Amino acid sequence: MIRLEKVTKSYGVTVAVSELSLEVNQGEVCMLIGPSGCGKTTTLRMVNRLTEPTSGRIFVDGQDTAHVRPEQLRRSMGYAIQGVGLFPHMTVSKNIAVVPHLLSWEKERIAQRIEELLSLVGLNPAEYAGKYPGQLSGGEAQRIGVARALAADPPILLMDEPFGAVDPMTRERLQAQFLRIQRSLKKTVIMVTHDLDEAIRLADRIAIMEAGRLVQHDTPEAVLSRPRNKFVHDFVGTDRALKRLSRISVSGFVRQSPSISISASVEEAAAACVRRRWVWVVDENQRLRGWIDRDSLHEVASVRESIVATDPEVIAVAETATLREALSRMLGQGLRSVPVVDDRGRLLGEVTVTDVENATAAREA
Ligand SMILES: Nc1ncnc2c1ncn2[C@@H]1O[C@H](COP(=O)(O)OP(=O)(O)OP(=O)(O)O)[C@@H](O)[C@H]1O
Ligand SMILES: [Mg+2]
């Protein structure tokens, strides 16, 4: 689908990209990663001809892009640029609609698409459609950038650190959303990231660059277990077993867990805590409220009094989270399991530290 053949880009004496050959198959997610200044953005910009290579050739669908008009080429490629690049004088709606507008879509269809995309990136259309970029946080602006790249439903997506400026929780959700969308839409994606965990989670294959060169292009598993050279080895770091957990979704490990209603009596709670020391506490709607510990049940009159109330955002994980996040919540709370909740905060079950250990051991073997 996308093939780079010995592509070089020099700026005077600076060689930004050097003899880079890379192939990205149709429907594949290629995560481009490497230290700052190694040529990631330059590579992306050469694919859609925002930057012209000094030498080498780039093919899209078998066609040499040097012979395709840039405007035509870019119609098949959504591009989310590093640092967002929204037009400051246009509303969020107008920003998203740029390409559909160029393609002369009907008004109705554009309006519908804007709404669809805002919901997709988790922003309320009624609230955000009319805002200007100056009224958005960095993370919100970035999500609008992603929506804009997706607007005309292009088969190819070029994304330059699209989730770089959002907090870890939001990033987690955006990554999960991206994976969900990608499973059904099967775009051909080149995405730049600085975050190795993100690369491992989202990639079909990872392309690691160093000083303008491609040093390894492989599946996440292969990059972690067989780093090609010392640079990649150092780059992926020492906790490779942990990083592998970023590839594994919590959903396959959710097991039933003891829970008790917040309105239960102390006797019922004590009975629930016989087999193990703590149980989760839920409200009348099954929403997680916290946990109780066997030792805290003495001399109290109700579950309410001894509950360790917790913010589900802090302690629980979503079904779409990875085992890596589950583990970090457990470590953060000092518990041997982490509750799993649905998108309304209702308790689905839990994942235990033993599950995580087994998953790590299975991968190591
Ligand atoms: N227009 C330009 N003129 C001169 N040098 C440039 C130009 N654009 C990029 N470079 C240089 O080319 C190299 C690669 O830049 P590039 O933006 O591709 O890096 P990057 O991997 O995207 O880095 P980052 O992770 O910081 O975004 C850098 O040394 C940069 O200074
Ligand atoms: Mg860059």
SSE topology sketch:
Blueprint: E1 2-11, E2 14-24, E3 29-33, H1 40-47, E4 55-60, E5 63-64, H2 70-75, E6 77-80, H3 92-96, H4 98-102, H5 107-120, H6 125-128, H7 138-150, E7 156-160, H8 168-185, E8 188-193, H9 196-202, E9 205-210, E10 213-218, H10 220-225, H11 230-236, H12 240-244, E11 259-261, H13 266-272, E12 278-282, E13 288-293, H14 303-306, E14 308-309, H15 312-315, E15 317-318, H16 323-333, E16 337-341, E17 347-352, H17 353-364
Parallel strand pairs: 3-8, 3-9, 6-7, 7-8, 11-12, 15-16
Antiparallel strand pairs: 1-2, 1-4, 4-5, 9-10, 12-13, 13-14, 16-17
Helix pairs in contact: 5-7
Bound molecules: adenosine-5'-triphosphate and magnesium ion (MG).
The site of magnesium ion has 4 residues, from α1.
Task: Describe this entry's structure for a reader.
By secondary structure, the chain is α/β, with parallel strands linked by helices. The chain has 2 domains: 246 residues, P-loop containing nucleotide triphosphate hydrolases (Rossmann fold), CATH 3.40.50; 115 residues, CBS-domain (Roll), CATH 3.10.580.10. It has 17 helices and 17 strands. The chain has a 6-stranded mixed β-sheet with strand order 6-7-8-3-9-10, sandwiched between helices. Strands 2-1-4-5 form a 4-stranded antiparallel β-sheet, covered by helices on one side. A 4-stranded mixed β-sheet has the order 11-12-13-14, with helices on one face. A hairpin with a 2-residue loop joins strand 4 and strand 5. Helix 5 packs across helix 7. The longest helix has 18 residues. The site of adenosine-5'-triphosphate has 11 residues, from strand 2 and helix 1.
